[in-house]
What does this fold into?
Amino acid sequence: MPTPYLVIDGLTKVYERGQVHALRGLSFSIEKGEFLVVIGLSGSGKSTLLRCINRLIEPTEGKIWLDGTDVARLSAKRMRRVRRRIGMIFQQFNLVDRATTVRNVLTGRLGYMPGWRSLLGLFSSQDKRTALANLERVGLRDKAYARVDELSGGQRQRVGIARALMQKPEILLADEPVSALDPATSHSIMQYLEQMNRQDGVTVIASLHFLSLARRYGTRIIALKDGQLVFDGPPKTIDNAKFKEIYGEDAEEVEVR
Amino acid sequence: MTGYPEGYTSPRPEWTTGRGLYNALARRADVAAKYFAVFLLDAGGLAALWLLVTYAYAWYVLGITAYILVPWWVFALGVVEGAILWESLGRSWGQKALGRELTPVSGEATPIRRLLYFVLWHLFGLTGIGFVFVPPLHERWSGLGLRRERPSAQAPVPWYRTSAGLFVAVLLVVTMVSALGVTLTWESLRRLFTQAGQTAEFWRALVRPDTTILLDAMRDMIVTVFMAVLATLFAVAVSVPLSFLAARNLMRGPIGRPIYTLIRGAMSIARSIEPIVWAIIFLVWVTALRSPFAGILALWVHSIADLVKLYAERLEAIDQGPIEAITATGAGRLSVLRYAIVPQIVNPYISFTLYRWDINIRMATVVGLVGGGGIGQRLINYIWGVQYRQAGTVMILIVILVWAIDYLSARLRAKLA
Ligand SMILES: Nc1ncnc2c1ncn2[C@@H]1O[C@H](COP(=O)(O)OP(=O)(O)OP(=O)(O)O)[C@@H](O)[C@H]1O
Ligand SMILES: [Mg+2]
It folds into this structure.
């Protein structure tokens, strides 16, 4: 039996400040091509989990096997090579507001360039063409030379997606990609992720706040509560009882259409 | 690994490794620093209050100048005991200023516990012995500790009902009262309102400028502008790299933090010495009587100190988001600097530089007054020579220059924002 693509084994994260146990011995695995949605209350550890996978946050304990290598133990240099295979998009978009759209998209190539080229800003013409093509793909070709702070939230997230596309990622981490957006825009962003997942075969791990979105786009859902796994299964199997277990007794489900 | 079953061997104690030892010491120093910072603020505040009250009392009632009026050990004891009592029993101003409060580690803060804390702080806090342990002994055994104040659901108590608020108010009032009595006399006030006529000659000279010196004055003014420009440019060259070493968020860990502290400390000392003092230092140093060079050096040093602070504070306020995102693409550290940090700081840096250049133009004039060259030196020469008409001319020129530069730099900065 082939080993799964990503295996999380006993992952624990304790934040030094305040001794917060954000993740407590989390274990699960993902096959290539899955669209995994992580749900859970605020503070349940979703962001921490996602950031441990590409080591933006150093895990305290546990193993993260990505395609056979333990990411949690790689040296900084080898980690950088792994990171370029992992795209990431963020709730607050995390773009450089003062720079133009293409410039932001081009930064997705930095992991593939030798240091001196990137310091001098010498992106190859191939990269520039790809950047424009990726902007075309997310429908922002006409905004290529606009400054990012002139764009709307939905447009910014599309820039974030284009930046991640530049990495030609095998896996995409999306930390609440639509929490700052309205319902209609949310769907359009989620559809881009779905498209990456289906057409390009990118494995997607997205944290979401709305169960309706999770059901609609995820091929599998995991739920966290206090840094522990409380649910793992296909979207259909989350019923009312499960929902109350994850979100607490008083929770009511909200629909996003 | 060695054949022992898991959990059989006990882990190595933390302090047996260099790094562990460093961490352990750092944690203790951290705790002690917090307690002592509060204590020093309280004791210092009480000492200041005592000195001021005694001073005012001696001045107004006894008609003499005196500071403590009691044996020094009574003063010292009073201040130290007062501070500890204040901290144990209530919310001291030191606690308030540093955002801390004495709270029970568990249970209630009973009067007995507070009293215990008062005694234990003498034994283990003041002596420093208690800080060998974490948490420190006085905290362990009294059950009370200094914690970061927590936002509570109750409305904050108005300042006039807190001891800290009243303390600060009394301190301000006493300072005002003493200062008024010492620096102002009826005689000096009378002169202010009756002797304005004596300056008439000066004002008259001001409205009759001497145009024959205009050309020479202009030349000196250009020197002044050059001084400011050079000082600013050289200061930027030094400050930009230094600012990265002086930014708290970039300098972490056992190597970074001391460097940060050192640079910030040195800069705040350099900044607290006024440019005019620096000018005198450099005049002695480069031994030239009239020397724009000394003036440039003076402005340079002060500008570095100022710019490093402004730059570093901007660096500390940058958005972490882009750093996170660009790190996530697999970019190296320098690329992250170049693509996530630099774009966020270029415009503010330019803006601060313009602002400092604007200050330097004015400072260059002041530095000139002590012999630092340029237009300021010309002005002071005329004034000492009682050539009021010429002095007036120079002053008008300075006003025009400063106004123009001020306007220019404000316009440029507005563009950058
Ligand atoms: N840098 C940090 N330092 C200390 N504690 C932190 C830090 N970041 C997160 N935490 C704590 O870790 C826990 C998990 O946080 P995390 O951000 O992973 O939750 P989350 O599920 O993403 O929440 P949200 O839905 O609000 O984004 C929380 O209790 C939080 O307070
Ligand atoms: Mg989060």
User: Anything to note?
Assistant: Chain B has two domains: 14-151+158-164, 201-416. Residues 129 and 303 of chain B are 44 Å apart (CA to CA). Strands of chain B lie at 100-104, 144-148.
